[in-house]
Amino acid sequence: KAGVTQTPRYLIKTRGQQVTLSCSPISGHRSVSWYQQTPGQGLQFLFEYFSETQRNKGNFPGRFSGRQFSNSRSEMNVSTLELGDSALYLCASSLEAGKGLYEQYFGPGTRLTVT
Amino acid sequence: KNQVEQSPQSLIILEGKNCTLQCNYTVSPFSNLRWYKQDTGRGPVSLTIMTFSENTKSNGRYTATLDADTKQSSLHITASQLSDSASYICVVSAGQAGTALIFGKGTTLSVSS
Question: Counting Cβ atoms within 10 Å, is residue B74 exposed (0-12), middle (13-18) or buried (19+)?
Answer without folding.
Answer: middle
